[in-house]
Fold:
Amino acid sequence: MNTTITSIYFSPTENTKRSVESIAEVIEGNKEQIDITVDLEPKERLFSDKDLVIFGAPVYAGRIPSVSKERFMKFKGSKTPCLIVVTYGNRHYDDALLELSDLAEELGFVVKGAAALIGRHTYGEIQTNRPSEEDFLENHRFATRAIAELMNNKELKIPGNQPYKDGISGGRFHPLTSDSCIECGICVKECPVQAIDKDFRTINGNCISCFSCIRKCPKNAKNMDTEEYQSFAKEFSKELNKRRENEYFF
Ligand SMILES: Cc1cc2nc3c(=O)[nH]c(=O)nc-3n(C[C@H](O)[C@H](O)[C@H](O)COP(=O)(O)O)c2cc1C
Structure:
């Protein structure tokens, strides 16, 4: 198949990026990645019906993050087949997969396969080793089967409700900065919403609590060492300790 497979994802802590890439890697064709995580204004693109696109986003409060939605809207299809992927932290994906599916269809894509996959939760210590090698193998099997079914006109039944759950633009935890900060600027560069001011420390109201800065800080200077967060994280981790499995639709 001489197709171009374009992965388009929003992924502050890289669960979605890694999951989407594991799907793309077993599909034959030229590969291209469009990472919209820190791209405030992605370049508009129109795909043809010969292309294949894989869209990926995390689940925030049962929806896809509103900033990702605005950025996905720069991409248009002309009956372009696509696969859609959401990753979530072992609670639930609620209406997020349906929302991404509806969005893709609105933009001119035809959803040929969908996956709701587990990734380490942003908060607490929940499924910290996921996505795992085992998850990637499941993703490979999904990709192979979805591609084999590409020409079939099967109606997909994607779980979720309309109207969707009320969305949130992000969480309520805004990272702190310790004295270990060496002002390398990685956090500023990697922040998806320009929430970290030029002093590398002040977090402004744009913060969506994605914890990209915490995960990527080479000195562990960005942190959430408050009593309120620590006690929430402890309880939350206990509550969500039962492993959930990936779900695939094709
Ligand atoms: C603000 C916020 C809200 C979240 N809401 C949910 C949720 O509703 N259900 C869930 O299971 N995980 C939730 N998560 C966890 C993320 O969906 C999960 O860690 C995801 O894999 C992160 O994707 P990324 O690594 O690509 O950024 C939330 C995370 C954040 C930051």
In short: Strands lie at 4-9, 30-35, 45-46, 52-58, 75-76, 80-88, 109-118, 176-177, 222-223, 247-249. The chain has a mean pLDDT of 96.
